[in-house]
Amino acid sequence: MRISARADYAVRAALQLAASRDDGPVTAEAIADAQDIPHKFLEGILNDMRRGGLVTSRRGGNGGYRLARPAASVSVADVIRVVDGPLVSVRGVRPPDLAYSGPAASLLPLWIALRANVREILDGVSLADLEASQLPDEITELAERPDAWTNP
């Protein structure tokens, strides 16, 4: 699975908004500067997040962006889905809509299991968890495994 630059930037922007929730709306420029995200690229991401109901925006001198709901109720999966679509697909098709035959038949349950695990992890972590550096124990354990980030 690849995490696109768009998804990475969207999660980082959402975290910046979560951290700034008491400061009022945050401009796209401030988010871009704080997270080292190209401003024009970020504008498109924030528009997708607004259309997806994750952020609200206000124009004017005191304008900017805010999270549309509390950070504890926004999962990483919510953010990724809004900017990139389904978390796991095969050739653009969701695993339950695939059909294989012969020796490839066992691929379908493999893709479904992959999708279930990705969803479990990304739906199980909220922006508030990340902001507080309080990942669920099972995720911390997975990340600390010696083979977690190395290729066999």
Automatic annotation (TrEMBL):
Protein name listed in UniProt: Rrf2 family transcriptional regulator
Organism: Streptomyces fragilis
NCBIfam families: rrf2_super
This protein's UniProt keywords: DNA-binding
Domain of life of the organism encoding this protein: Bacteria
PANTHER family: HTH-TYPE TRANSCRIPTIONAL REGULATOR ISCR, WINGED HELIX-TURN-HELIX TRANSCRIPTIONAL REGULATOR, RRF2 FAMILY
InterPro entries: Tscrpt_reg_Rrf2, WH-like_DNA-bd_sf, WH_DNA-bd_sf
